[in-house]
Amino acid sequence: MASQIVRHKTPHWVGLACSHLQNLRRRDFVAGAALIDGCWIAGEKRDLVIDPATGEEIGDVAHCGAADMNLAIAAAQRSFHAWRALLPERRGAILRSWASLMRDHSEELAVLVTSEQGKPLAEARHEIAYGAGFLEWFAAEGERTYGETIPSHKSGSLLQVRMQPIGVAAAITPWNFPVAMITRKAGAAIAAGCPIIVKPAPETPLSALAVARLAEEAGVPNGVFQVLVGDSIELSAPLLRDTRVRALSFTGSTQVGRLLLEGAAATVKKVSLELGGHAPFIIFDDVDVDKAVKGAMAAKFATSGQDCLAANRIYVQRGIYAAFVEAFAVEMAKLRVGHGLQSATDIGPMTKLSVANKCRAQIDDAAAKGARVIHANADANLGCNFVHPALLSDVTDDMLIACEETFGPVAAVLPFDSEEEVLARANASEMGLAAYVYTDSLRRALRFSDTLEYGMVGVNTASFTGPPIPFGGWKQSGLGREGSRHGIEEYMELKYVCFGDLAA
Ligand code: NAD
């Protein structure tokens, strides 16, 4: 991954991440050792970790291979029976102390996240709290895997449905939420009674390994939570092939999700996928423009736009279209672009050059096809991973940005006239993760919440995530749900038991 970063000089913040990391109280957070079966493995080969804002090397981590993964699978399998036998409240207590350690070390974890991922420090702090929240949520949820008793259709019999842990689980996680996407999966698996092996994104291994340090301190036993960094294909192959791995959870691109689903078919694993989005953000002309702008800004620019919930197509009804574009441009111009470790920063670098290049390609394509391009502070030269917030107005459905996810701070605004028209355009996508509707009409809000083909719909709000909600998408945005009472089901099997011959 290091080879993707083109080096450049950025006088204001060269060395900033390195100096923050050198000052961490917890030196073990930057040791970069993998965690396999309770042992910290330094590895013979090391992979570089890069500050995406500057291209500087900020650390290195153990490069694990297929043989290491096989050891981890065996260790996970060995740990399974004792872990599932523990009372749920004991498993919950360990998850709660893990969450509490994360909160105690929030600042250091946030510095790691910002240094390797690039997001502003305030957002990184928020991610740590969000991530700890999943451990706490599932600590409680593990005690509520009740199962069912079915009124019997056979005389003298008792019919039960039990929920039981599925076995060894694996998680392949992304770089945009390098901590929370791990705890959202691991919290559910561990609470269910399953060991889990995590392969984090190669761009953001330090925060994953730091979280593993805290898991160990919280008392998660050897083999129950393991983290291995290395080549994605080499590490995922044993996970896909091995029959002992019974569940696979992935967050990332739809393209890789499809490959993993195909790979998991050979051993018929339970697969949950949280893939890309392409969220429509629909604004009717009965709403207050300022409220709509505030919502659209939040839904577009959080995580510097590198968010699967990001508003990708902002549809604005003709009556307020011009006013919306003008007010949005004013707000966008206030965004400060910079290194995430600088306190004033709202928009950090893209974590990957490929993501920045995709943004630029979408801007060029839209401009060539007639969109109006408004850049905020476009003259500052910050480096190739930075994308200045851009507003594309008068976007049409044939432009790239209207057809594919952006994953960066580029806002596309499209005018519309009627309710029927915008509903058809919003649903004309193979993606179905999140959608937003802003309207003052209750009837219309109810109609849209019913007919939008998306797994999550925000009505008059851009903020709806958190541990209690079932996060997941329809169509090619994924399979299964994370968080909520449903999240734990991805790591459990139902068992039907019939007790017969009970009549006295
Ligand atoms: P990606 O899907 O390539 O990477 C996500 C994870 O999958 C990482 O851990 C990566 O190492 C791993 N991976 C990659 N190729 C793999 C393979 N062949 N086998 C097994 N594991 C593999 O995502 P990306 O290329 O880094 O980002 C591209 C696009 O994906 C983004 O622009 C965005 O649209 C989407 N994305 C979505 C999310 C999300 O939250 N849903 C997160 C990250 C990326």
Give a structural overview.
54% of the residues are buried. Helix 7 (205-218) links the parallel strand 8 and strand 9. The protein is globular, with a radius of gyration of 23 Å. The mean pLDDT is 96. The protein folds into two domains: 63-275 and 481-492, Aldehyde Dehydrogenase, Chain A, domain 1, CATH 3.40.605; 279-466, Aldehyde Dehydrogenase, Chain A, domain 2 (3-Layer(aba) Sandwich), CATH 3.40.309.10. Helix 1 runs antiparallel to helix 4 and helix 4 (106-117) packs antiparallel against helix 7. With 504 residues, the chain is an alpha/beta fold. It has helices spanning 16-22, 66-85, 88-104, 106-117, 121-141, 180-192, 205-218, 232-241, 254-265, 289-301, 318-333, 353-368, 400-403, 419-427, 442-451, and strands at residues 34-36, 39-41, 46-50, 57-62, 148-150, 158-165, 168-172, 196-199, 225-227, 245-251, 270-274, 279-283, 311-317, 372-375, 390-393, 410-416, 431-432, 434-438, 456-459, 474-475, 478-479, 492-499. Bound molecules: nicotinamide-adenine-dinucleotide. Nicotinamide-adenine-dinucleotide (NAD) binds next to helix 8 and helix 9.
Helix-strand blueprint:
Elements: H1 16-22, E1 34-36, E2 39-41, E3 46-50, E4 57-62, H2 66-85, H3 88-104, H4 106-117, H5 121-141, E5 148-150, E6 158-165, E7 168-172, H6 180-192, E8 196-199, H7 205-218, E9 225-227, H8 232-241, E10 245-251, H9 254-265, E11 270-274, E12 279-283, H10 289-301, E13 311-317, H11 318-333, H12 353-368, E14 372-375, E15 390-393, H13 400-403, E16 410-416, H14 419-427, E17 431-432, E18 434-438, H15 442-451, E19 456-459, E20 474-475, E21 478-479, E22 492-499
Parallel strand pairs: 7-8, 7-10, 8-9, 10-11, 12-13, 12-18, 13-16, 15-16, 18-19
Antiparallel strand pairs: 1-2, 3-4, 5-6, 6-22, 11-21, 14-15, 17-20
Bound molecules: nicotinamide-adenine-dinucleotide.
Nicotinamide-adenine-dinucleotide (NAD) is lined by residues 172-174, 176, 201-202, 232-233, 236, 251-253, 256, 259-260, 274-276, 308, 352, 355, 405, 407.
